[in-house]
User: What shape does this take?
Amino acid sequence: MRPESKPLILIVEDEEELTKLICLHLEEAGMQTQVCNRCTLALRFLKKNFANLLLLDVNLPDQSGFSLLEDLKSNDIAIPTIFLTGNALEVNKVRGLELGGDDYITKPFGFPELVARIRAVLRRTEAKTDMNLTKNVKVMDEPFDFCGAHIVPLRLEIEFPKGKKEKIGRKELGILAHIHENLGVVIPRKALIHAVWGIHADVKSRSLDQYIVKVRELFKRHGLSLDSFRTVHGIGYILGADEDSK
Assistant: This one.
């Protein structure tokens, strides 16, 4: 397996010897590992880096794993999570799963089982995103109208008056969908980038502006005005509440 294809597993565990064993078995199974022994360190890491899966102890010195998952949600960081704990109480398992955990493993556990469960969660995660065109748009999303044009995600197609149709790029589709969903609201550039590309994407405002220019030119070419879609200087964009398609 090529190094770049190895999934990165973030291990948040404060038992040093157990952590070493987990790393050893996961790396032998073809995965990469990153270790944080505190929730604050894990949150800091995930704000700046991508990981494929979070292996999270429930009881940590600075806060609980449950609290970390809530902090991740509040920071719009979505990551598949498997809880590890020595507490087998059903109420804790239920809480972990209700918070969005994908699995819950009690200590002691066998390492072959741990590897198998991680692989199962990774497979399910990949399957969930198979139909994604962008972070915010799926193939099966309903068509929507935008400033006189009709957009069909299923066909990556935009329909203009008089039956004229053109293909539309995935990113342009994601941009239009997010703006349409936030009618009358100022959308900061960074928020728009996070919505379409994902929170960890390294996309500059200039690149986003170039996609916006492409959208404007496309509508202009078909005689449609985007006057109600305005740039808010130094902040981002807004589609006016008087836009005729809701």
In short: The first strand starts at residue 8 and ends at 12. The first helix runs from residue 16 to 28. DSSP finds eight helices and 14 strands in the chain. The domain at 134-239 is CATH 1.10.10.10 (Arc Repressor Mutant, subunit A).
